[in-house]
Write a sequence for this structure.
């Protein structure tokens, strides 16, 4: 296990209600139950609703965190060059906000994958064999899981079912 120590010059600033990224960190890792719902009970009537809670909470943390960083930073972030992005991500506050950003969007993509597969009538067996690995890849490597799902969908799933009028 590699342990990184933050240098003294990289100060954690209060982001939300006086709490720093280190204080908030244990609170942000509650998204796993949502991923489990998507993997194991995608057709349950509450899955899509309950799996929206973590992204809403995380988006709120992101909003307050990014607003605080913008208001308290002396430097202008440069997201138009690789060097500017690398410089920004040397700040642990920015890394934290970036991580929250990943949490929000990966889970929203996972929700979309699950809902799409269900709407296309994906069988439970096919869901478990093909969609769940795509969800895992989305959790661990976002765009890779999304891409694999798009490939699976193109090859192995029919179009969305039409709703009866």
């Amino acid at each position: 296990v590699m342990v990184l120590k933050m240098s003294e010059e990289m100060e954690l600033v209060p982001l939300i209600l006086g709490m720093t990224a280190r204080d908030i960190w244990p609170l942000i890792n509650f998204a796993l139950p949502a991923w489990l719902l998507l993997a194991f009970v995608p057709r349950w009537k509450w899955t899509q609703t309950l799996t929206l809670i973590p992204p809403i909470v995380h988006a709120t943390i992101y909003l307050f965190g990014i607003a605080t960083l913008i208001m308290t930073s002396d430097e202008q972030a440069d997201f138009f060059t690789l060097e500017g992005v690398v410089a920004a991500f040397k700040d642990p506050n920015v890394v934290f906000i970036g991580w929250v950003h990943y949490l929000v969007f990966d889970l929203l993509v996972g929700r979309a994958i699950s809902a799409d597969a269900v709407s296309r009538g994906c069988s439970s067996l096919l869901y478990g064999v093909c969609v769940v690995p795509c969800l895992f890849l989305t959790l661990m490597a976002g765009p890779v899981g999304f891409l694999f799902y798009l490939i699976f969908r193109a090859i192995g799933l029919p179009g969305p079912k039409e709703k009866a009028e």
About this structure: Residues 92-119 form the longest helix (28 residues). The mean pLDDT is 90.
